[in-house]
Amino acid sequence: MVIMKKLKEKILKILLVAVLAVPFFLSNSSTVLAYESDTIDEAFKNLQNKIDSKLDIVYDNGEYVYSYNYDDIKEIIYNSGFDFEQFNAKYGTNYDKTSFLNAVITSIDSTKLHSNVAPIANYCNHDESTQGWNYYREFMSESVSKNTVSDLRQTATNFRLGGTGVGLLIGTVSKLFGGVFKLGTAYDAWYFDTLANSIEVNMSGCGTVTDINKFTTVFTVWDQRDF
């Protein structure tokens, strides 16, 4: 029975990669499914990494905050050559260099970093909400992960029935997407079904970790044991 279960899990993972071949990748070290692959998303990922390289985390007035030099962030964005027109077309935004810089600085300044910066050695059935300047992160225990999968599939059904708007995001999905959901972007039934599948395939008894990007529809899911 154990061998058959593992075989079924492997087949499911292979099928997911086959069906979602273009917009997803499967990590060699752990089952990590991420909604990112096209040129503009890769360019945006590189831009975020450059911004990350200029950020420090410091303890100030009883809390952890980002420390940075404004001119460093501005230089990265202004000299990046990033195609905001293509980005806007995909995500329904209206950024240019100046407005994106303002959005990044606002997010950096307003992000509430977790008080425990040092990671836990071994995560298992951990429930917690954390974030960085460009992502929301949800640690979900196995039971919460199961509920989230169910809520995601119901949300997908709501989209298939022709609805629109934040009101379609039920239960734990509202918590995941309430801060980033934007009308006119690439959210649809397929997106929420795929996120549900990504969480489900990473459920092994210890729960999951899901990152949702604050600026795009990109997500990444881990098994907590591999995080």
Q: Mind explaining what this structure looks like?
A:
The structure is a single chain. With 227 residues, the chain is α+β, with helices and mostly antiparallel strands. Helices cover 44% and strands 15% of the residues. The protein has helices at 2-19, 39-52, 70-78, 84-91, 97-110, 142-160, 172-177, 189-201, and strands spanning 33-34, 56-60, 63-67, 128-132, 135-140, 208-213, 219-223. It has a five-stranded antiparallel beta sheet. Strands 2-3 form a two-stranded antiparallel sheet. The two termini are 28 Å apart.
- By secondary-structure content and strand pairing, the structural class works out as alpha+beta
In helices, the fraction of residues equals: 40-55%
The count of helical stretches stands at: 8
Strand order of the largest sheet: 1-7-6-5-4
Rough outline: globular
The main β sheet shows up as:
5 strands, antiparallel
Per-chain topology:
Elements: H1 2-19, E1 33-34, H2 39-52, E2 56-60, E3 63-67, H3 70-78, H4 84-91, H5 97-110, E4 128-132, E5 135-140, H6 142-160, H7 172-177, H8 189-201, E6 208-213, E7 219-223
Antiparallel strand pairs: 1-7, 2-3, 4-5, 5-6, 6-7
